[in-house]
Amino acid sequence: MTIYNFSAGPAVLPKEVLKKAQAEFLDYANSGMSVMELSHRSKEFEDIIKTAEQLLRDLMQIPDNYKVLFLQGGASTQFSMLPLNMAKGKKAYYLVAGSWGKKAYTEAVKLSKTIPFEPICLASSEETGFDRIPEFDNRLIDPEAAYVHLTTNNTIEGTSVYQLPETNGVPLVADMSSNILAVDYKVSDFAMIYAGAQKNIGPAGVTIVIVREDFLNDEPALSSMLDYRIQAENASLYNTPPTFGIYMAKLVFEHVTSLGGVAKMEELNRQKSSLLYDFIDRSDFYKSPVKFAKDRSLANIPFVTPNAELDKAFNQAADEAGFKNIKGHRSVGGMRASLYNAFPLEGVKALLAFMKAFEEERG
Questions:
Q1: For the chain, is the Cβ count within 10 Å smaller at the N or the C terminus?
Q2: Residue 175, annotated ligand binder?
């Protein structure tokens, strides 16, 4: 039985990447050591991290005046690092379009009890279950604010920001965890981008931060480990970084490059997601909870049947048929197909055949 992994993260990785990692696992570059055994100060690892950075710079066309960091702690640690470093004495705006955007804002509010800054919810779609990207009047933004924060893809609710909002000249910061390298954004539109690796880049454990040099903090943060400038000045080697995760990221960057880069990945992702969205739109049995088609995610596609009992039956039958981890997030229920870069087109076609058969049987 063929297994298709629809997990929202840690997610499916390219088979070619896994095979290469397997081949090099015991002996990397004739060193006689596994990548997992290499010192982060060794020549071998220096080559790995520098190559990974250059590959990412080339893929995302990152300008020279941006630093690229490989950090730990996941995107959730950035919820704290960002205001700790960048917001002191200023306002910080948050566009809350999903659960992760809400967590980022909530963490900022918590920090504001001890750090002097003012987090402001710019707009939220929580009242309608995060079924859309909320709009706002950019004239409400104080031009002296530290930043405007948004999440480019809402993994749980299945919405995305494609048209970046006007921010009244205030720097834009994005949590791009679930659609980095999957949608072809222009890096120079952002002061900072951060992303957990476990969707499109590699295994859990690595966090990518891309930050414009003039946006870096001037004053020291409370902790050296949580200080962007210290991490940048030490080229991500202030302490032992997640060496194996960075190596895996390098392999993924090489793989995406070989396929044609980020623009090609977006084209393929639009092809995959369109097949599923078109099927859902034609069906009287399945429905998308996202209100507007323009907000639909290419990466995470939630859908439901007419009732919760049928959702439960679908998830059970899908799992038994080899469609793994398609159950929706516990906070929203239903189903969710995560079609990240490494997810194959054949898997989408197989899912459509299964969905059609289930509808004919239960509809």
A1: N
A2: yes
